[in-house]
Write a structure and sequence with these properties.
The protein has helices spanning 31-41, 61-67, 88-106, 122-127, 164-173, 190-195, 198-208, 219-230, and strands at residues 8-11, 18-25, 45-49, 72-75, 112-114, 135-141, 154-156, 158-159, 181-187, 214-216, 233-234, 240-242, 249-253, 256-260, 265-267. With 268 residues, the protein is an alpha/beta fold. Strand 8 (158-159), helix 5 and strand 9 form a beta-alpha-beta unit.
Length: 268
């Protein structure tokens, strides 16, 4: 007897089909105001820090853990060199030593990065997994909402000065649940001071806040979740699924949202 087939889709947590994440570099003093805005509206993201750069324009290390609580601390190299011009062994040192210092402060493994000055080579991309880096953001804008093919060359939807509100409105309007949609915004918080446009990010965060179909996540949370989803084990008949990981993953079965708890096998 032929087993009826199902349409099976990966979902984001709680069955959502959209995710919003933010990505900000350099750890300058304006991060204080930006994090406050994120917290006000429940927006979450990642802050890429240079552990070897300090001074009056940078957030002191002793503030990092408390300031970025609920967000993600991520690498940006120790001294922010243009790494495509650097010897490859020195690139490794810049990344590993940044990880080491950030982890000592954050209290957890730091596994992400953004390329300093947007600089990288294919050799560096191949190197990063051996240094414990699982994703790395490049510069530029896609004006799109697709999931990345390679998390080590992860390009954002837009810089906050590039069609931010327009892209946000397009993202909110997306309603085809057979797709997963990602909106990824990047920039530097000091740019809001420099350009006098803090109202831009405030308007965006207010517009995006509290939506039932959006998952608000850090960069590494997206990477971890998608790895867990990819690791689900389905029978050929599609009547059972086993989750060998620790965290729950959500799927859609013929339009019905199902949670697959960590370590569990469920009947579909």
């Amino acid at each position: 007897m032929t087993q009826p087939m199902h349409i099976l889709y990966t979902c984001f947590p709680e069955g959502k089909h959209k995710v919003l994440t933010m990505s900000y570099d350099d750890g300058t003093l304006a991060d204080r105001r930006l994090v406050e805005i994120f917290r006000k509206y429940g927006i979450r993201g990642t802050f890429h820090l240079n552990s070897g750069l300090c001074g009056k324009e940078r957030i002191p290390k002793e503030e990092w853990k408390a300031l970025y609580e609920g967000q993600e601390i991520s690498c940006h190299t120790v001294l922010h060199p243009t790494i495509e011009r650097s010897p490859i062994d020195q690139v490794a040192v810049q990344v590993l030593e940044d990880r080491r210092e950030l982890e000592r402060v954050a209290g957890y493994p730091v596994r992400g990065m953004s390329y300093p000055n947007g600089s990288y080579t294919e050799e560096i991309v191949r190197l990063l997994p051996m240094l414990g880096i699982e994703y790395c953001r490049v510069v530029g804008d896609t004006d799109d909402f697709g999931m990345p093919e390679n998390y080590l060359t992860w390009k954002a939807t837009c810089h906050h000065n590039h069609n931010l509100i327009e892209n946000g409105k397009r993202f909110l309007a997306l309603d085809k649940k057979q797709y997963l949609y990602l909106m990824y915004v990047w920039g530097h918080s000091f740019e809001f001071d420099r350009q006098g446009n803090w109202e831009l990010i405030e308007e965006f965060c207010e517009m995006m806040a509290g939506k039932d179909d959006i998952w608000y996540a850090t960069n590494i949370e997206i990477v971890d979740y998608m790895k867990a989803a990819k690791n689900l084990k389905f029978t050929v008949d599609g009547d059972r699924v086993y989750n060998p990981g620790a965290a729950s993953v959500w799927i859609s079965v013929d339009g019905e949202i199902r949670e697959v708890p960590g370590g569990a096998m469920i009947r579909i």
